[in-house]
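To fix ideas, we close by showing one paired sequence and structure record:
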Amino acid sequence: MKQRTLTLLFISMLATTAQAGENNYGTIVVEGSSMRPGEFGIAPNSSALKDTASLLKRIPGANVNRNGPLTGIASYRGQYGAKINTEVDGMSWKEVGPNSMDPPLSHIPAALTETLTVYRGIAPVSSGMETIGGSMVVESRESKFTDSDDFEFHGLASLGYSDVDDGLTSALYGSYANKKHRFHASGSLEQGNDFEFDGGKSVDPSQYGRDTYTVGYGYRTGDHEFGFNYSNNDTGHTGTPSLPMDIIYVRGGILSADYNVKLGEGRSFEAAYYYQDMRHWMDNFTLRPNGIMMGMEREIQTEVDGGGLSLVYHTPLAAGNLSLGLEGDQSTHDTFVSDPTSAFFVDNFNGVERDRYSVFTEWEGSIGNGLDLEAGIRYTRINMDAGDVDIIAMAPPPALALRTAFNAEDRSVSDDNWDVSIVATQELSKGLSVEVGLARKTRSPTYQERYLWLPLEATSGLADGRLYIGDIDLDPEVAYQLELGLEYAVGNLYIAPRAFYHRVDDYIQGEASINGAANMVSNASSGRDALQFTNVDAGLYGVDVEWGYELDMNWRLDGTVSYVRGRRRDGGGDNLYRIAPLNTRAQLTYAIDNWSVATEVEAYSAQNDVAAYNGELKTAGYGLLHVRGEIEPVQGLSVGFGVENILDRNHENHTAGINRALGSDVDVGDKVKSPGRNIYITATYDW
């Protein structure tokens, strides 16, 4: 099956040139797009990008739910977080923080990202387990084999400064390889202060600090390839103003190994394994005064240990290719809450296990007369369990009652989930095709949604300020998806509109709790009843468009439009939470020889369709203007510069959370502001 892809060339931490051609920089790949690689669109970036998730805002239908500068939660067509399958270097990285302080896309800085692939529309079953909200894959920079016995040395060094937060970024990558051996190592350092908005006010705490390093080796002999890699992340003091606590540290890494072999006659076999071990510490008094001023200092230590295995066999079949896969992963989560000034403690998540075992088969190819087909089926078994929990003996009786009730329950749960997808693409004429897709996708509850026994905000980054409890008996979500798209690319013009509808049965969200003990605990802490994760029925629908026109050899215009609406299908039709409003981006680029300049307009309408169940705030519409440029004074050296939000527009991104931190220029309970005018400069040398 011919797979059309959109390739948006970008230079990590730099404004992007409009000339594509040969490059050693990263790419954004949107599977299922009409754009021809390197001809039209660009995605200009700057040192203001703190994590790879920031790139999603330039993809039709995608967005970011941000709770802090390094806490970008992927969002696609109104679904986000655990609803989206996100893999990094072929691994399903598990968040160590129960409030998504370290979502998967935060683990690799933009400067060290090789590709970010987003499957547009219905994700194929081969792209991962639990793809109910879509699928995204990040590949970091790694060494590649050459065709010679002689070793070659390549690398990249980058520096950047952004004045909106006095941010400094740096990255260094090097590879040493020949046709049999490859070695690579990389590292990055990032740090910044609280970012400013509205002429000098600041969001406090929004400082950040992170350093990473990676080392890897690969060996190839004949048709066999072996590879090993270790990645380590050390995030230091980093603010998350939309959450009740801030990051003191996130530390640990992932060790991975892979093996690939070509079996002849178009057949191949791939095997991969990884092990993850990470630790996380957070509190409410180091970066903000909340704990001290309210007399409730809290610190939380969390841990995750996990690993996964993937075995996939590929073989030609009929006029296409068949894939057979066996995959699985396991993770164990622990969370312990304490008060450094007293004996208070809560053993909140104790030995929580979430294990997945999955098999799939998928075929893609041509069935004649310009008709391509992709069809697959996946079965996934999910086993979950949790150990006994505890709380200080002097806790109020309702809290002790919740502990006793939870420990008395049977907490072992198993789900049997089936996913099916069929996508057909028919070429109607030269440059014009239509795509129709149907799918059934599933997702089991997260461990927070099942095992949160005491009203807390450990809610995978919902950031709505409400206290939640879980429900062990939750059913998996089941979505029935319909996709219809057109793709037109002739001459200098391309346009690709897509319409979709997702009917989601047993959608998981918060509902007013009827648990008396939980409500007493919640009211004592927040003055409001708790919300309990509950199965409801929902629907999401919308349209997203990518388009572009090459005016001449030097000028071109590109853009996207995205709209999604999410509503309950029961209970009065309340809106779903944290969905971006209608938005668009348009960019005019001029490029010649070794320099380019681009002007980008970014516009969001007001969002009045908000979720009543958790008191979601409405947001006003806004428009932003950005100007970026790049010059290559000598071969291999690129200097980027630009101004983002050039008019210093005071605005609030709807997918941002509300402020929870005292002492900020943003009032507690208001939406966290977006950065003001940002002047940046970057430099990258590639060899």
